[in-house]
Amino acid sequence: MSGLEDIPLRPEKVHEPDSATILHPVLHEIRHALRRLIQTGESTVIDLTSLPFGPGDESKLLEYLGEGEVSATLNTLGRSRLWETRFPGVWLVDHYNPEQVRIAFQIEVGEVPAVLRSQREDVADGLDRLTSLLP
Amino acid sequence: MTEAKTLGETLRRQGVSRRGFLKFCAATASVMALPPSMVPVMAAALEKARRPSVIWLSFQECTGCTESLTRSHAPTLEGLIFDFISLDYHHTLQAASGDAAEAARETAMHENFGRYLLVVDGSLPNDNNGYSTIAGVSNLDMLKQAAEGAAAVIAVGSCAAFGGLPHAAPNPTGAVPVSEIIHDKPLINISGCPPIPVVISGVLAHFLTFGRLPELDALNRPLAFFGQSIHDRCYRRPFYDKGLFAETFDDEGAKKGWCLYRLGCKGPMTYNACATTKWNQGVSWPIEAGHGCLGCSEPNFWDAGGFYRALSVPTADIARTAGYAAAAGLALGAAAGVMNRRKTSTAVEQHETVTVDDLEKS
């Protein structure tokens, strides 16, 4: 009796959609955010999970933005990746939970992503711990 | 060891740093479409949020809504919220059964009177209360009794929100939604067959953070998730605007990912977050998989003319006003594009919702 593996498979060629619609609007939004950063020092967060990505759009966007000088891994409530793109001030923040399921994906335009900064409460906790360790 | 009282304490006991808490708040704000300036406000509020008691009543339903919500793994946002709430009564998830389960429900309602969240899935049979009972108590009586001490009522799924499948013709049980029974409590409808999991937990998170329900549309659905139509956020919209439609499910147009309007897609009349939030943690959604939208988050979607019959007009009476025959696909698409933009801006101003009745006038 033949099994499932004996059924011949012929993969269909995947047709790329005719237009990458989401790329340019997002890039323009980044451009406006960079201008705002320079003029007022204000940072901007663009939530990528709220944008209507078609198949292949996300990888096109990431390819376009590229990778810059800095990358970081955040290990809390799962692993998150943060990196500066080839445009300084434009960061990608990719949050995952311990099951490697994405829970947030944002472009943060600013000097450094807010979540990378050490938090005052955590610093205070660390100081207590260090104090208790020292003789 | 005393139980952690607030969400902040719960997370700290799990060894979560303040930075981790901020990551959690950023993900929550992203899901609820809140601006990033709200993250510190959220963090401060969630820090102090106390474990709310939640009573979940299941009536004439298929359990699909529970299945949707429990597909997510802890501790995603859904998992953390779900673990944090005190789910005191739920047919599928509770360990107790029979009298013990009913006693647990009554105890929770009594101890948290005025403060518990009442979640309802499934419609109620209005023709004869005996059609659907739990422990001998009719759905109608149980709902009215439970609603008395509820801080808010959340109708999960199209059945509880609009009547859903039981309400479809010929409606043998006289099924009605929760909104026809409960009039004196804050009520939110989270429609969808089923709703996207993160929409349910987003509403719970909003309630935990701000102590009230989020901004609602005319059908009492949270605007953050139901404020835009599928059509307006669909990545295949450029094909619609150019008049490029798939005519069958396996033709060249279908393989190239063209618009599914002619195959019965109800995107233009449907409001939900599927086009952006997608399904199965963002893997895909019906239109991306090649099937038109069923309109499952709208009232009467089962009786909206057929899943594979095209909407008679795109979003307005375009055939008459634009003067084109329906067969002129390209022209229809282009004219539809113009009409859509105009209608969108007026609709946005007036928070209009397009119903099936509007569309079938022609």
Structure description:
The complex is a heterodimer of chains A (about 140) and B (about 350). Helix content of chain A is about 30%, strand content about 20%. With about 140 residues, chain A is α+β, with helices and mostly antiparallel strands. Chain A has one domain: Ribosomal Protein S8, Chain: A, domain 1 (2-Layer Sandwich), CATH 3.30.1370. A five-stranded antiparallel sheet of chain A has the order 1-5-4-3-2. The radius of gyration of chain A is 21 Å and the shape is flat. The N and C termini of chain A lie far apart (about 75 Å). The relative contact order of chain A is 0.15. Chain B has about 350 residues and is α/β, with parallel strands linked by helices. Chain B folds into two domains: about 50-70 and about 80-190, Rossmann fold (3-Layer(aba) Sandwich); about 230-360, Cytochrome-c3 hydrogenase, C-terminal domain (Cytochrome-c3 Hydrogenase, Chain A, domain 2, Irregular). Chain B is built from 18 helices and nine strands. Chain B has helices spanning about 5-15, 20-30, 40-50, 65-70, 75-85, 100-110, 140-150, 155-160, 165, 195-210, 225, 230-235, 235-240, 250-255, 275, 320, 330-350, 355-360; strands spanning about 55-60, 85-90, 115-120, 125, 135, 135-140, 150-155, 175, 185-190. In chain B, helix 2 (about 20-30) packs across helix 3 and helix 5 (about 75-85) crosses helix 10 (about 195-210). Residues about 315-335 of chain B have low confidence and may be disordered.
Spell out the key features of this protein.
heterodimer, A: 135 residues, alpha+beta, Ribosomal Protein S8, Chain: A, domain 1, 5-stranded antiparallel sheet, 3 helices, B: Rossmann fold, 2 domains, 5-stranded parallel sheet, 41% helix
